[in-house]
Design a protein that fits this description.
333 residues, alpha+beta, 15 helices, 46% helix
Length: 333
Amino acid sequence: MRQDPLSDLLRSVRVRGAVFYYVSCRDQWSAEAPSAAEIAEAVMPGCEHVMEYHMIAKGNGWAAIAGQPPVRLATGDIVIFPQGDSHILSSAPGLAPLRREPDWVFATRNEPKPMPISFHHGVVEAGAPMPVDAADMVAVCGFLGCDLRPFNPLIAALPRILHLPASRAGDWVARVIDQAVVESNARRPGGDAVLERLAEMMFVDAARRYLDSLPENATGWLAGLRDRFVGKAIALMHERPDHAWSVEELARAVGLSRSALHERFVQYVGHPPMQYLANWRIQIGARLLRESNRTVATIALDAGYDSEAAFSRAFKRMVGMPPAAWRRAQNGG
C-alpha cells in the first residue's frame, strides 16, 4: 500500500510556485505586503488560493500578522503565510511599515522576474539590486498557488504563519535558498522553471515538517494523517477510492469499532469517514476531468461511482455545475 495521502492531495490540488522578488534591505526597514487575495490575479493568474513565502538568504528580521506575536527570522529560515494574510517583514518589531500597494503589484506584473528591490530607511528602489555585501538582509520572495475546490483539506490544516527555522530545515533547504539566490541573479535560460520547482519543493517540505512538529493533542487533517487509526483509514480510501467502502469495513481494517472510528475521524478531520470519501472521490473526478480526455462515464467509475448519473449529481452538488461544464470551464471553453 502506498499510504501517502499528503502526496496524493498535493498532486491533486496542483501546487504551483513562483519567485517574484529578490529583496535586499539595509539599516532600518519595514514593509507590509497586501493580502494574497488582493494581488492573486497579478502574481498567479487562475489560482484559486495564493500564499506568499520568503526565504531568508542573509541576515535577520521579523515577520508579523495581525493578532499574533511577531516571529523572529534568521539566515536560512523560510516563512510562509498559508492563509494569504497581509503581513509585515521588518528589521525590528513595531516599526511603521511601508505598504506595497496592490496597484503597484499589478502595474509591475509584466516586469522581468524575479524583480530586484532595494529597501532602506523607508526608501524603495524597484529594479535596483543592492550588492550582497552592503545588505543587512537578503530574501527571495514569491508565491505559491493551489486549488481549493472541490476538496483541499490541507490549507485549513495549516497555521496563519508557517515558520521553518534553519535549525529544523536540514542542509538541503539551505542549498535550495542558495540556488534560489543564484537563479534570481543569473537570469539564465530555464531559470524561471528552476525557481518554480524550488518553491514547490520548499512548500512540500514545510508541510511535512509542520506535520512532524504537531503536538500530541493537535487535531485537523494533518494530525489525522499521523493518527494510527484515522491515518490508516484515510490511506485506505486514497489507495482504493473506487472500492465500496463502508464504515464497518474501514473500522475492521484499522482495528476499531464502527462507532470508535466514526468518533475519532470526526474529532480529527471534522466530518465522518464516508463524507471524507465522497469529497475525495469528487476531487479525483475533478483531476481526471481536467487532466485527461476520458469520458465522464469512465471517470465516474474510476472515482468510485456506479454510474455517470450518480457521479454527475454528486459533482454538481459539491462543485456547483455538472462535470462536462466544469471541464469546459477549466480548459477555457
